[in-house]
Amino acid sequence: MALVKLKTTIHYEQLQNSTKRISVFQGGTRSGKSYNILVWFIVKLLNETGKVLTISRDSMPSLKGSVMRDFFIILESLELYDEKNHNKTESVYNLNKNIIEFVSLDQSIKIRGRKRNYLFLNEANETKYETFLQLAFRTTDKIVLDYNPHEEYSWIYDQVLTRDDAELFISTYKDNPFLPIANVEEIERLKDVDENYWRIYGLGERGISSQKIYSNWEIVESYPTHFDSISYGLDFGYNNPTCLVEIGKKDLKVYLRELIYKPKLLNSELIREMESLGINGSDNIYADSAEPDKIEEISQAGFNIVPANKSVHDGIDRVKRVRLYVHQDSVNGIKELRNYSWKVDKNGRVLEEPVKYMDHFCDGVRYGIFSEEKEYEVIFVG
Q1: Are 342 and 272 within one domain?
Q2: Which of 11, 181, 290, 340 sits in a 20 to 30 Å window from 82, CA-based?
Q3: Which domain holds residue 80?
């Protein structure tokens, strides 16, 4: 196996030299921590047999859209992937007579079930301390946690990093020499956008309390098969993701689902994806009004698309008056909703202006709900 193919960074070396039972990787966005943790475990298991590695996150959609995807990309890049070793139904892979299982943290039976040698808890601050304990009790050897420190208070700080057998590594995008310059520029733009976001996503430092914009939402597994009406919110991007959100109304409830969330998407590719999704030509699509040419091209393709009402403050106020039920597969949308915050200036004052970062799903939701506010009833929250 040629390690040169793996593009390892400092995180790999830190794990190689680790002598602690628990390694905690706190980092800013795009620092490469999750990728390198996976590489380290793969290399380790190629030199061992009979071991069990559990890789966990809060939900199976989150797992599939992040570390599970990266795990198999790494295996394929090393020409190690063999479909015969992959039990897709159980989300288990056999590597060199070792078992790698992907377990979502809502699977309580598996959490409290079999033992393991190694545990990798991805985005650890999204779960509860009790869940971590149940996993740790059944892990005999190494435990690795990683996360973006967007919460000021967490069990990780108080219950894990205070332990004698735990160590902390902090990294930033600067520790990832393979990051494209466009991503570097986007992250560094946070210096002038929001002090707290720069601390968290730029410097990898613990966030400070700020006012989250939305609390009127919950994740749902059960999702209606039919709606009273459907509309869509569309936020255009290129280097940033293009995001299409389905907004379904059923019995006065509002359901959200992320349908498209992709960067580098040309308008022609977007149209093909929308066609493959079977979007009804009569359903309203409310799109970013800053892109009239794109709207016209999509309209010419047969979609009922119109410019959205982009009033930010009034739109947020409207969305906050509705109870939102978010489909569990909306991995990027859920992450955005958890972090969507009012801007904080350098003096610590919370401003009535949202941070313009990781807001593509949130913008799509606002476009769709606010632009057709007179067309359906809402449930007032509070």
Answers
A1: yes
A2: 11
A3: 7-183
> Residue 35 to residues 21, 146, 165: CA-CA distances in angstroms?
20, 11, 24
pTM of the model: 0.73
- Residues constituting the chain: 382
Pairing of strands 253-262, 242-250: antiparallel
User: Residue 46: which of 13, 94, 14, 84 has the closest Cα?
Assistant: 94
Tokens at 364, concatenated: 């799509």
The number of folded domains in the chain is 2
Q: Which residues contact 208 (CB under 8 A, 6 or more apart)?
A: 152, 196, 199, 344, 348
User: If you write DSSP's letter for every residue of 111-139 in order, what string do you get?
Assistant: HTS--BSEEEETTGGGS-HHHHHHHHHTB
For residue 212, list its beta bridge partners. 341
| pLDDT given at position 381 | 39
Q: Are residues 252 and 317 in the same domain?
A: yes
- Residue 53 pairs in a beta bridge with 100, 118
The CATH number linked to 288 is 3.30.420.280
Answer yes or no: are the C-beta atoms of 361 and 336 closer than 8 Å: yes
If asked whether residues 162 and 233 sit together in one domain, one would say no
- The CA-to-CA distance between both ends of the chain, in Å, stands at 58
Q: Say if residue 283 is in the same domain as residue 135.
A: no
CB 10, CB 175: distance < 8 Å: yes
Q: Residue 139 is encoded by which pair of tokens? A: 């892990």
* Residue 241, φ and ψ in degrees, nearest 5: -65, 145
Q: Look at residue 97 in the predicted model and tell me its pLDDT.
A: 97
Higher pLDDT, 111 or 247: 247
Is residue 207 in some structural domain? no
Tokens read off for 189: 């733009």
What is the residue whose two structure tokens read 């299982």? 101
For strands 86-87 and 92-95, give the pairing: antiparallel
Provide the pLDDT confidence category of residue 57 given band limits of 50, 70 and 90.
Answer: very high
Structure tokens at 248: 């379904």
Cα distance between residue 82 and residue 270, in whole Å: 33
